[in-house]
Design goal:
alpha/beta, single chain, 130 residues, 5 strands
Length: 130
């Protein structure tokens, strides 16, 4: 699916693979190595289109670790080194997102939980130069 997205889409959102039975994210597809592998696959498959792509991911936690919601199948426990979990101070989170933006071209982030909006808004403001 990522290969097709890299070749055809304008925006590619990177997330964990869903289990074959559809019961939720596949924990074997979690972590930094899996995330970096997806980025590499997209870069290779996109070829000359790569510079025109917008890359993004969902952020599962912002600021401090929160409870896992009963409605969500997402498990952030294996995602701590990826941009999908942003824990720490305001400065820590800004620096991590800059790292992912400048080093890996990620510029599109979707919050998994509405409860994180207040913590994330000042980060967006700083990164957008406001």
């Amino acid at each position: 699916m990522l290969t097709l997205a890299a070749r055809e889409a304008d925006v590619v959102n990177l997330g964990m693979r869903v289990r074959a039975d559809g019961t939720g994210p596949d924990g074997a597809d979690a972590g930094l190595a899996a995330f970096l592998s997806k980025l590499s696959l997209v870069r290779e498959a996109a070829g000359e289109r790569y510079d025109r792509l917008e890359l993004g991911t969902s952020i599962q936690q912002v600021g401090t670790a929160g409870p896992v919601e009963s409605w969500s199948a997402a498990d952030p426990s294996g995602q701590g080194e990826t941009p999908q979990v942003l824990l720490g101070t305001h400065r820590d989170m800004v620096d991590r997102l800059r790292h992912w933006r400048d080093g890996y071209d990620l510029s599109y982030f979707v919050l998994h939980h509405e409860r994180d909006l207040d913590a994330f808004a000042p980060i967006v403001e700083e990164l957008s130069g406001r």
